Structures are given as structure tokens and as C-alpha cells.
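Table S2 (text version). Query chain:
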Amino acid sequence: MSRWQAHHLYIEDNLASIRLIEEILHERTDIEFLNAREGQIGLDLARQRSPDLVLLDLGLPDLPGLDVLSQLQSAEATRRIPVVVADVATQKIDQLAAVGARAYH
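Corresponding C-alpha cell output:
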């Protein structure tokens, strides 16, 4: 019998942040961890793989993270995927709400 495995996508360009999340999830055999270091690659992976969760950085080299979030929220194939914004830019809270963020802490 095969076990269920969650698929998480982390869209982040900072290698240290990626390694930190990989280290945290290292022993979780029930989570497949994918990462994309550019927004467009992340969008493509989200469409292709339909992850169970997206972790999103806002400061990406090719596309603003807000644009990535907006595209994820507006596309039929990805709008139901929960997105957790992993960024310290608290000044963008209003902008996040405008593109579909439902909660923040």
C-alpha cells in the first residue's frame, strides 16, 4: 500500500532560505519538496505539478512575488492551492490583500 505524500513548492531565490526549509523538512518523508528560484519557473511548476501548498517569497529576480501570487490566484488550475507568503516585507500587507491574501500574522 502506498503512502500519501504532500507536494510543497517553495518559490524563493535565496539559497540559504531554501536550505533552511529543506533542513526543517528533511525527516518528513510524507512531503515532497520542490523549489523554484524564479517566479516564472514557480508558476510553471505550480501548473504542471499542482502542489498541495506553495511557499512564496515576494522578492524574486524575474517577477514580483505579488504578480506571482496574483497569477496563482487568478488561474483556474492553481487558484485552490494555498499560498503562504514567506517574506519579511510587512509594508506590502495591503498589496497582498488586494491580490487575494486571506490572512497574515
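Notes on Table S2: The beta strands are 6-11, 31-36, 53-56, 83-85. The longest helix spans residues 15-25.
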